Amino acid sequence: MKRIILLAICQFLLVTTIMAANIDSLKVAADSAYAREDFDKAARLYHRIAKAGESATVCYNLGNCYYRNDDIAHAILWYERAFLLSPGDEDIRFNLDLARSKTIDRVTPKHEFFFVTWYRAMTNWMSADNWARTSVAFFVLALISISIYIYGRQIWLRKVGFTLAIVLILLTLLGNLCAWSQSVYLQNRTGAIVMSASAVVKSTPAQSGSDLFVLHEGTYVSIRDNSLSEWAEVSLADGKQGWIERKQIEII
């Protein structure tokens, strides 16, 4: 039995090593193709890497390939995926905004309560993993502050320890909340990008439905109802909503 388990572990490590080496070689080949400005080949290679495991870097590189080929819809799609995985990356944010500026549709977001805007900006400051690490650091510092409060011999030192402990515990809870929010958003992806040159949004999930408005490639939409096989109910940041054919959008 021990021999079987040991053999299984060895096989797993061997397969993992081979896969890692293969991904590394694909990464080198993709980077080389991008440097030669062979963006089609680079995109194909980056796609193969992305299938093995999505990462912000690979998604960002794919976005760059499509952007250099003037495929704005796919560029925005992959920049959005990269931003989802690494929301604090300024390069990703800049390129995403640059690609969005080349889209046709101009959607003015509805006014929202300032606290919602502030919380969303704070949550997107870091990824879920980074928020989790930050929370752990705050918690460790809180424990140290509690120790200072308990074992400190001077009154002022105990007061400082108590105050810091309260602040750090609150920061720990806030960090966990941000990490949870990022994790939920990453797992339950409701954002999508219009991939068709133009897409008519209907009042009902049928071709016979009334035409409400037209969207163009690269526009971001939020999916409200994804239960139908051929249609999805979507909404825009300005509050407009309707039904669009699923084949005309791709989920981030």
Structure description:
Helix 2 (39-52) packs antiparallel against helix 3, helix 4 (72-85) packs antiparallel against helix 5 (90-100) and helix 7 packs antiparallel against helix 8 (155-187). This protein is an alpha+beta fold and 252 residues long. The strands form two sheets. The protein has a five-stranded antiparallel beta sheet with strand order 6-5-4-1-7. Strands 2-3 form a two-stranded antiparallel ribbon. The chain is built from eight helices and seven strands; from the N terminus they run ααααααααβββββββ. A hairpin with a 5-residue loop joins strand 5 (231-235) and strand 6 (241-245). It has helices spanning 2-35, 39-52, 56-68, 72-85, 90-100, 114-123, 128-151, 155-187, and strands spanning 191-194, 198-202, 211-216, 220-225, 231-235, 241-245, 249-251. The protein is globular, with a radius of gyration of 24 Å. 61% of the residues lie in helices and 13% in strands. The relative contact order is 0.09. The model is unreliable at 12-21 (pLDDT under 50).
